[in-house]
Amino acid sequence: MDKIVIKGGVPLAGDVQVSGAKNSALPLLFATLLADGVSEICNVPHLRDINTAVKLLRELGAEVSHEGDCLRVDARKIQSVEASYDLVKTMRASVLVLGPLLARCGHGRVSLPGGCAIGARPINLHLKGFEALGAEIQLDHGYVEATAAQLRGAKVYFDMPTVGGTENLLMAAALAEGETVLENAAREPEIVQLAEALNSMGAKIQGAGTAIIRIQGVETLQPLNCSVIPDRIEAGTFMIAAAITGGNVLVRGAVEEHQEALISKLVDAGVTIQKEEDGLRVIGPEILSPVDIRTSVFPGFPTDMQAQFMALMTRSSGTSRISETVFENRFMHVCELQRMGAEIQIDGHSAIVRGVREMTGAPVMATDLRASASLILAGLASENTTEIARIYHLDRGYEKIEEKLAGLGARIWREQE
Ligand code: UD1
Predict the structure, then answer these.
(1) Which pLDDT value is given to residue 359?
(2) Which of 4, 54, 109, 138 matches a 20 to 30 Å C-alpha distance to 350?
(3) Where residue 366 falls among pLDDT bands split at 50, 70, 90?
């Protein structure tokens, strides 16, 4: 298994290109199942989660081919409607095939995701939505089976804004009969991209990016042709890398409107952010001020940036409170950061972080995708050597992160254990 080795202490400088967004590419790939034809999606990042999605599409009978960062999906012959436990346990987002399968084939069978490193992550709201559209849902041997000869538009109210739930319902409702209204829908940029992509296929969706989305069902959809938006979480991670090392980095592809919450908190911490033509320039201060954050749904502070921001606050000149409200149990990185010398106390859903002058490098272990990124950031800011094991988590969601950081002057490389 590979590990990442970092000898920190170098202020990062230069410019770095953000890849396509994993969390946008995944629903777009599954949306190709809605059309009886050949779709093409470009700016797809090279990631383990994308490989898992491709494997799943192939198991369903789709033909998938690569050309550079474009993926062609021929969804003319769908032979299976099942997402197996092996795939769903590797990648929860596999449940996003259920909406398209139900809409196109009238039937879908998907393994329940089960336990997850960042707490219980049920799909009850997805299922409640499908039921509202007239699907019959059955649970059988750890699988969810959904059936509907013809989905019918309905009003769906989400008890909480769910990204995956909103995406699954958007895809199902696009081919339902009549109007569907999604209330308390998630508003993330990835939802907006999915809605725009579906509209380019012939769907009639209005309101994506607000809490109420209206979908007029259509009979068929054309194949998809689109390019994935830049990854705001990868961009945010590079922005913090610049800030934590006191560097000066142009993050190419970072979109200001996608980063409002992060930008505001970085500015409070003393970081300088300048908008440039093709991205955001981030200049780290000599001394970072402590800042409190509270994660919430978009446009609030993203839970996927919580671990990275905590790494930043370990180096602030005071005490900050990091509150996690989206997922339970998303503080596994705390123990590892403590092993590097951070002073952090957990208080229910909050972590109290007392900034320290120096972090000591240490051998640490990645526990989930964003936790891994926080360990890299802490390692970049520490004078000694940090070794991060179990980096397969990182490969799920960051394309060549060590190469990109090395391009900014970081002393970081991958080794075989
Ligand atoms: C997506 C992102 C993930 C991000 C998360 C929140 C993808 C592939 N993943 O995950 O990176 O951390 O949004 O921004 O896009 N919930 C329920 N019942 C449901 C669905 C969700 O109770 O049926 C709860 C979850 O447990 C969680 C909250 O709702 O507490 C938000 O989850 P959700 O927005 O659905 O996250 P994902 O779509 O799984």
Answers:
(1) 87
(2) 4
(3) confident
The residue whose CA is least distant from atom 3 of ligand 1 is 304
- Calculate how far, in angstroms, residue 300's C-alpha sits from the geometric centre of ligand 1: 14
Q: How far is the CA of 163 from the centre of ligand 1 (A)?
A: 6
Per cent of the chain over pLDDT 70 is 98
Atom number in ligand 1 closest to CA 233: 11
Angle at which helix 232-244 crosses helix 260-268, to 10 degrees, equals 10
Which atom of ligand 1 has the smallest separation from the CA of 164? Answer: 38
Ligand 1 centroid distance, CA of 143 (Å): 19
CA distance linking residue 74 with residue 58, whole number of Å: 10
Q: What is the pLDDT of residues 20-43, one digit of tens each?
A: 999 999 999 999 999 999 999 999
Q: Whose CA is nearest to atom 32 of ligand 1?
A: 162
Q: Is the pLDDT of residue 83 over 60?
A: yes
Give residue for tokens 């050949």: 38
Residue 96 CB contacts under 8 Å (≥ 6 apart), including other chains: 26, 27, 30, 164, 167, 168, 171
Q: Which uninterrupted H or E stretch holds 143?
A: strand 143-147
pLDDT at 390 over 90: no
φ/ψ of residue 66, rounded to 5: -105, 150
Mutate which of 163, 193, 304 for ligand 1 pocket (most atoms within 8 A of beta carbon)? 163
Instruction: Provide residues with CB under 6 Å of ligand 1.
Output: 23, 26, 92-93, 121-126, 160, 162-165, 186, 190, 303-304, 326-327
The Cα–Cα gap between 234 and 242 comes to 13
3 state SS of 104:
helix
**Pair of tokens at residue 162:** 């769910």
The pLDDT, as a whole number, for residue 118 is: 55
User: Which ligand 1 atom sits nearest the alpha carbon of residue 126?
Assistant: 23
Q: What is the pTM of this model?
A: 0.97
Residue 206, pLDDT above cutoff 80: yes
Structural domains for the chain: 2-19+230-416 (3.65.10.10), 22-227 (3.65.10.10)
Asked if pLDDT for residue 280 goes beyond 60, the answer is yes
Least confident of 6-10, 52-56, 89-93: 89-93
